[in-house]
Amino acid sequence: MRVFAEFARSIIEHKDIRLLTRGETQRMYLYTADAATAVLCVLTRGANGEVYNAANEDTYCSVKEMAELVINELGNGNQKVIIDVNGSANRGFNPVQAVYLDTTKIKRLSWNCTTGLVDMYKRMIECM
C-alpha cells in the first residue's frame, strides 16, 4: 500500500500527512517478517489445497485512523492530518472498501503475528 511509505516519509520529513480522500477504506496490515512466518507455517503445517489468510487483526483501521495514529505516536507534535479532497474526484481512486480477513484457519496451525502497526512504522522509518 503506497500510503504506508508516504506516511513514514511524512514523519521523517516533519511534514503533515495529506489525504486526497476521506481515508475511509479499512483493512489490516501485516509486517513482512510476520508474513514470511505465515508462509512457512502454511507450507509446513497447512493442508494441501487449503487457503489461509494471514493478517494482524490488531491493525484493522481506516487509512485516516492510521494517519492519525502515525502522527500521534511518531510525529513531532506539530504535524497533522489534512484531508484535501478538492479536485481529487477524477483521479481514479479505488472505491471505499472494508476488508477484514478471517485468520481462524492459520491460527489453528499455531501461527500468530508479533508486530503491531506502530512498531511496523518505527522499523520502517529506522530503515529509511
How many β-strands, per DSSP? 4
The portion of residues assigned to helices is: 40-55%
* Rg over alpha carbons: 17 Å
The averaged pLDDT comes out at 92
Sheet-strand content, in percent, reads 5-15%
Strand order in the sheet with the most strands: 1-4
Oligomerization: single chain
Separate helix tally? 5
SS content category: alpha+beta
How does the major sheet shape up? 2 strands, parallel
Can you write the helix and strand succession as a string? Answer: HEEHEHEHH
Instruction: Report, as a whole number of angstroms, the end-to-end distance.
Output: 16 Å
Molecular shape: globular
Low-confidence residue ranges: none
Describe how the helices and strands are arranged.
Layout: H1 2-12, E1 17-19, E2 26-29, H2 32-45, E3 56-62, H3 63-74, E4 81-83, H4 104-107, H5 117-127
Parallel strand pairs: 1-4
Antiparallel strand pairs: 2-3
Helix pairs in contact: 1-3, 3-5
Written account of the structure:
This protein is an alpha+beta fold and 128 residues long. It is 41% helix and 13% strand. It has five helices and four strands; from the N terminus they run H-E-E-H-E-H-E-H-H. It has helices at residues 2-12, 32-45, 63-74, 104-107, 117-127; strands at 17-19, 26-29, 56-62, 81-83. The strands form two sheets. A two-stranded parallel ribbon has the order 1-4. A two-stranded antiparallel ribbon has the order 2-3. The longest helix has 14 residues, at 32-45. The chain is globular. The two termini are 16 Å apart.
